[in-house]
Amino acid sequence: xxxxxxxxxxxxxxxxxxxxxxxxxxxxxxxxxxxxxxxxxxxxxxxxxxxxxxxxxxxxxxxxxxxxxxxxxxxxxxxxxxxxxxxxxxxxxxxxxxxxxxxxxxxxxxxxxxxxxxxxxxxxxxxxxxxxxxxxxxxxxxxxxxxxxxxxxxxxxxxxxxxxxxxxxxxxxxxxxxxxxxxxxxxxxxxxxxxxxxxxxxxxxxxxxxxxxxxxxxxxxxxxxxxxxxxxxxxxxxxxxxxxxxxxxxxxxxxxxxxxxxxxxxxxxxxxxxxxxxxxxxxxxxxxxxxxxxx
Length: 295
Prior knowledge:
Layout: E1 3-4, E2 10-12, E3 20-22, E4 25-31, E5 42-47, E6 50-51, E7 55-56, E8 61-66, E9 75-76, E10 97-98, E11 116-119, E12 122-125, E13 130-134, E14 139-144, E15 150-157, E16 165-166, E17 183-185, E18 192-194, E19 197-203, E20 213-219, E21 222-223, E22 227-228, E23 232-239, E24 242-246, E25 249-253, E26 258-261, E27 267-271, E28 277-284, E29 293-294
Antiparallel strand pairs: 1-2, 2-26, 3-4, 4-5, 5-15, 6-14, 7-14, 7-16, 8-13, 8-15, 9-10, 11-12, 11-14, 13-17, 18-19, 19-20, 20-28, 21-27, 22-29, 23-26, 23-28, 24-25, 24-27
């Protein structure tokens, strides 16, 4: 169930509604212009075993992230929680749990050492926790040897606001490319500290993405100051539990939660757990995740 918070902030589950299905691929579209975003989207793509159909990017930057499924055991329906009359927040428990993979195979990702992505005919080995940049009008396909599905989070900037275009031919390649390619592993990126948090930038203009920036951030237990950004942002929760605050409203978040933050909306992420809360973020236009304005 999608929750609408103050200012148009949205918190949704990653498998809401009927997906677009084609061959080994299923696509959910929780965030985009069709749901109120101005120029950014977030799609959840699930690749079952085998070679996927070829997907042609639009006239936009597209940024992918290969999810580590071991941290995505479940997702939750949630509802907005305004403050009570005396200023105390009213917290609603999750309504139910939604297992991440209901009709494909088991909901835990296996080893993806032999998984490949082909971009305009060039094949690259892909690993979990890797960002991938797809240039405007490029075509890509993923070959997943299985047996478990591969989950990919995709953002397009600016959002073309139309269904994905599937190419008529596949992009199978007999050999791996010997060039680095537009793939950036999280483990290879330096951590940038801000207060008691860190973030790592994966995809930015260093690999050609001039429209948007992708990062992974880590939030310790507790709640930071309310703040806003001068960009539009989408978040995908990778690990941990907490609450997404927008003004005086909030909603629970957990692995698999998809969040939309309008430009200029005052917000903060609260980590209500005992350990790390980790999130994937993409924002448009491109810039630095450290630029924020406290209120």
